[in-house]
Amino acid sequence: MPAAPQDDGPGAARIARAVERAEELVAVGDLPRAAGCLRSVLANMDRAAVSSAAVDAAVLYAHVLTSAGHPEVGLAWARWARPRHGRGPDDPVAVRILGVLAASLHATGQLRAAAAHYRDLTAALTRLDGPDAPRTLAARADLAVVLHASGDCDTAHAELGAVLQEQQSGPDHLMVKLLTRRACMYRDCLDARAAQCFLQAVARARAVGLAEQVRAAAARAPCDRHRRVCTHRRPRPTGQPPAPSQHPESLEARRAGQPTPAARSPWEAP
Known about the structure:
The protein contains 13 helices and no strands. By secondary structure, it is mostly helical. The longest helix has 19 residues, at 111-129. The two termini are 27 Å apart. Residues 241-262 have low confidence and may be disordered.
């Protein structure tokens, strides 16, 4: 087992400053410069005495690489960091590692492992934040996407529908993202009627700052790859609406207060 991380020394302080700078770059969307900042300090760290700052840097680097389209290397860094953080399972760093692992596993197509990590992440966030907290609901929504990609479509639709119900009092931008995600999932299942129902709900919502993303989602064709694994039950007969609890209009009514109608080395540059 790797030694517990060290927290002192000039090297740790230098890495901590690099992490702070990289977080600033991530916040403004400059992933290439953030990756370069972290790559430099990680390449020069003392591997015989890994500091907590180095573990934090590795986790952030894994996140940046995965977000920038290099999930294989991101996964390697997340796996490197996990046994070295030296903290309990509910520590913020441990929870962050779980999230990065889940995302990188999903991005590399390891869907069963990704789903398992998202379940662990959901359990940890439920203990820390509560079952209805934004981070918990976001993890459940990500789990639904992974389940859908693996072909467990109706479970995925039900899970995302439950998240939508519990998120009805949350920020409008998050509701729009969830409705759009659900519409796209139905479209990939070739359930055009349900997809259109949710896209109409998105069009009625206040998509401030998300208009371009919504338009792109509405224009996207169904995913050919999903057809090979799709297990979604066929749509109901014409004229029979979705169950009230799953209908997007019921979400809007409730919010208005109305009655409801393969692994690579972490030292390998991307």
